[in-house]
Write a structure and sequence with these properties.
Length: 573
């Protein structure tokens, strides 16, 4: 105990502390070292802030002391019998000019429950020993540095601290320099910190999502919490921001041109709806399915998860708005922007289809195309809006009401398309598949949100099984109904269903073997990453080749010859 505190004193420049009264003089619990609070060995567990108990239960009336003769053993033999009969339960040295690295010797304080070293200039990293500080419940390491200064506690958030999160209040880590929160190695830590701090709130938690990300700022590199609060975003330079804005504008323009060209092609050549267009929409549906199963918290490799998320056009995710705007009200308003981007074209097309007579058919078809492309984008935006973190309860309620209204709008359009699509009702089946998968993803997020971390692995397997059941059911329905006009389209759809199911299984295996990406070495891990990436890449490439082959060899394709009355062939738009 004495050695641990002496090492802390030496490594942080104790001679220059603002107050080092009695440090290194005698015994900390007997002589009263400044900031060191003790309890009797028989009552080592704090109840509240100052009461010493045997197990944290009933009141004892015994309070912590800062030096007491009662802690003296009464022995002066010069042996271990002379050690104090009290244990250190609190070390409180806020704004005391501690400068330097924390030392691993702190782990030699097994009864320490409160550690407050805020307002200092600490460096180094937290101890990594698995059994370090097993009783810690209060931690404040908030530092005085700004994001572009040197210093701060660095390295990974240690496993022992993550294991103590359920008992930690407060947990303040602001203005430090922990490892990059956007890497695969940090994914588990960020998820567990988020789960704890969204419960504690800003008064009890700082520096980590969903409150902030200043715990990870290193010299020259700043991070801000995402608009939805689920993670951190790296703040780019000014030049990078202009490049990102130009790229997003280009993507939006390209999408508008593609939608217009697609709509014009199908309206001008309706016979293509059963052939080339149907194949393209199979690929679009597959990409949308991949984005949804990529949201399932199964332990995906981070790079693959980011690629799958990009298929769903998270345009607002490409723009580092949290880095540009720091006001919480503005951030709250901007969280609605992505929802507005989805809603405006749909509402506009719906109004045109409702009011315009001359171009009613064209407007109706454009509405169906936009809805097909934006269906999963809108679902993701609404779920993000519903689950985002906000300290202001009024803003949070408004966000959830808006998300609920958006879901009702989706249902309204689905009901409307029930009669508008005519023979192309198979698209309703595709939308139903995407909707059910999204419900699985949404309920999985909710369950993991409110359940302890130890139960996450069981929950992920349950929801993985549900997602596989949904895909398997629709695969069977597709094989039974035979909704497409050409054999290769049925083969392609069956192949993509198999890929989706296999990808879920591989993601579960990868997450189990690597502890959600926390373990970063091993040939098995590399093989799984390459296999999963190759599988998904082959599925997209294979679908593209089928589409190109259909365009090149369309005269040679052999459509299914089946009477419509048999319930087999339906066109696909």
């Amino acid at each position: 105990m004495v050695r641990a505190l002496a090492l802390l004193y030496e490594s942080t420049g104790g001679n220059a502390w603002r107050n080092n009264d009695k440090w290194l003089s005698g015994e900390p619990c007997v002589d009263g070292w400044f900031g060191v609070h003790c309890c009797p060995q028989a009552l080592p567990v704090l109840r509240g802030d100052d009461e010493c108990t045997a197990d944290g239960g009933g009141a004892t009336g015994v309070l912590t002391t800062q030096g007491s003769a009662a802690c003296h053993s009464g022995s002066v033999t010069g042996t271990a019998l002379d050690l104090a009969t009290c244990v250190v339960v609190k070390v409180l040295l806020p704004s005391n000019s501690l400068i330097g690295p924390l030392d691993g010797a702190l782990c030699e304080l097994p009864f320490l429950q409160h550690l407050d070293l805020s307002g200092n200039a600490l460096t180094g990293s937290l101890p990594s020993a698995a059994d370090c500080l097993p009783r810690l419940t209060y931690l404040d390491l908030t530092q005085t540095r700004s994001w572009d200064d040197e210093g701060g506690v660095a390295g990974p958030v240690p496993e022992w601290l993550l294991d103590r999160l359920d008992f930690m209040a407060p947990l303040r880590l602001a203005n430090n320099a922990f490892d990059d929160p956007t890497t695969a190695e940090s994914a588990v830590a960020i998820s567990r910190l988020w789960q704890r701090c969204q419960t504690l709130g800003a008064e009890q938690c700082s520096g980590v999502p969903p409150i902030g990300c200043s715990a990870f700022n290193r010299q020259g590199q700043r991070y801000e919490v995402e608009l939805d609060g689920f993670g951190c975003v790296r703040c780019p330079t000014s030049l990078e921001i202009f490049g990102i804005a130009g790229a997003v504008a280009g993507i939006v323009l390209l999408l508008v041109l593609l939608v217009a060209a697609y709509t014009r092609l199908v309206r001008k050549y309706p016979e293509y709806a059963k052939t080339h267009v149907a194949s393209i929409m199979i690929l679009v549906g597959h990409l949308q399915t991949l984005t949804i199963i990529g949201r399932l918290q199964l332990g995906w490799p981070l790079v693959i998860q980011e690629i799958l998320a990009s298929f769903n056009l998270p345009l607002m995710g490409y723009i580092p708005l949290p880095c540009i705007l720091t006001d919480p009200v503005l951030k709250s308003v901007l969280s609605y922007v992505e929802t507005a981007i989805v809603l405006l074209p749909l509402v506009g097309a719906w109004l045109v289809a409702r009011c315009a007579r001359a171009r009613k058919a064209w407007a109706e078809y454009l509405l169906s195309v936009l809805f097909t492309l934006l269906f999963t984008v809108g679902l993701r935006a609404s779920v993000t809006l519903f689950m985002r973190y906000d300290e202001d309860q009024t803003r949070l309620i408004i966000a959830r009401l808006v998300a609920g209204d958006l879901w009702l709008f989706w249902l309204f359009l689905l009901f409307r398309f029930r009669r508008l699509l005519g023979e192309a009702r198979w698209q309703l089946v595709v939308w139903a598949r995407q909707g059910l998968l999204f419900l699985v993803s949404f309920f999985m997020d909710c369950v993991l949100w409110f359940s302890p971390y130890e139960a996450h692995r069981t929950a992920r397997y349950v929801f993985a099984a549900l997602a596989i059941a949904v895909l398997g059911g629709f695969w069977h329905l597709q094989a039974w109904r035979q909704p497409y006009a050409m054999r290769q389209q049925h083969w392609l759809e069956a192949f993509l269903y198999a890929v989706d199911i296999l990808a879920i299984l591989l993601a579960c295996v990868y997450g189990a073997l690597t502890h959600d990406g926390a373990v970063q070495d091993g040939s098995v891990q590399l093989a799984l990453e390459l296999g999963l990436g190759a599988l998904l890449g082959a599925s997209v490439l294979g679908a593209a080749l089928v589409i190109i082959g259909g365009l090149v060899f369309s005269p040679l394709t052999a459509p299914l010859i089946e009477d419509a009355s048999s319930g087999g062939v339906r066109s696909y738009v």
